[in-house]
């Protein structure tokens, strides 16, 4: 893939973002959270562009060439490559929150099972877990951390509208699940986004264990 950059974006900046995405993708793939070419990852490049994984590659074996530039409407910039099918969900976050720098979307088994189990309620309410404090803005295990579960669809504008509706209702949003599909989370840099993803994976696994133990 050849990536031509606009004059305003230094090659070193794009490469730094691409390398950070490749590294995160490899580590998340090693954890088994990106099976069968699923999942997609992005980082903001500037106020009008982001770097994102191309569609359909194994996430444990990405190179710099598998990361492409898009504008915040989701169009490819300076390349013929095709961005991830779910690009609109990434650009929505960058458009809404200028401070957000990274978006991670994975399909772990825990995320997938939890999304199905709570799809009927449309939300997972986390409370009483110390690790909720890993989510930016949460300072106590007593707080309630709500993770919405949206119905899955191949039509991205529907999901974009559900995210908008949740936010327009004035509810905090740090992550969401899609039914039978996976999780989206984001942060002010890659480290914060990774922390959010790891904490949420752990919290969802704890909730599933509790459900199982209480039922037995
Ligand atoms: Zn997905």
From TrEMBL:
Gene name of the record: mtnB
Pfam families tied to this protein: Aldolase_II
Pathways involved: Amino-acid biosynthesis; L-methionine biosynthesis via salvage pathway; L-methionine from S-methyl-5-thio-alpha-D-ribose 1-phosphate: step 2/6
Family stated for the protein in its record: Belongs to the aldolase class II family. MtnB subfamily.
Name used for this protein in its record: Methylthioribulose-1-phosphate dehydratase
GO molecular-function terms, A-Z: methylthioribulose 1-phosphate dehydratase activity; zinc ion binding
E.C. no: 4.2.1.109
UniProt lineage: Bacteria, Pseudomonadati, Pseudomonadota, Gammaproteobacteria, Lysobacterales
Gene3D superfamilies recorded: Class II aldolase/adducin N-terminal domain (3.40.225.10)
Any one biological process term the GO annotation gives: monosaccharide metabolic process
């Amino acid at each position: 893939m050849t990536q031509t950059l606009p004059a305003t974006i230094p090659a070193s900046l794009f490469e730094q973002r691409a390398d950070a995405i490749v590294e995160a993708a490899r580590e998340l793939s090693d954890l088994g959270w990106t099976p069968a070419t699923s999942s997609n990852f992005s980082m903001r490049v500037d106020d009008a562009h982001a770097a994102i994984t191309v569609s359909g590659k194994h996430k444990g074996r990405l190179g710099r060439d598998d990361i492409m530039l898009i504008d915040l409407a989701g169009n490819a910039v300076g390349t013929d490559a095709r961005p991830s099918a779910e690009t609109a969900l990434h650009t929505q976050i960058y458009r809404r929150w200028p401070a957000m720098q990274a978006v991670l979307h994975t399909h772990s088994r825990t995320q997938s099972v939890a999304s199905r189990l709570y799809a009927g309620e449309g939300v997972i309410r986390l409370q009483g877990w110390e690790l909720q404090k890993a989510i930016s803005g949460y300072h106590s295990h007593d707080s309630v951390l709500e993770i919405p579960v949206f119905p899955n669809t191949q039509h991205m504008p529907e999901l974009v509208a559900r995210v908008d509706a949740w936010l327009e209702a004035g509810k905090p949003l740090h992550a969401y699940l899609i039914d039978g599909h996976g999780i989206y989370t984001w942060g002010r840099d890659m480290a914060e986004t990774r922390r959010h993803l790891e904490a949420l994976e752990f919290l969802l696994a704890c909730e599933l264990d509790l459900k199982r133990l209480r039922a037995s």
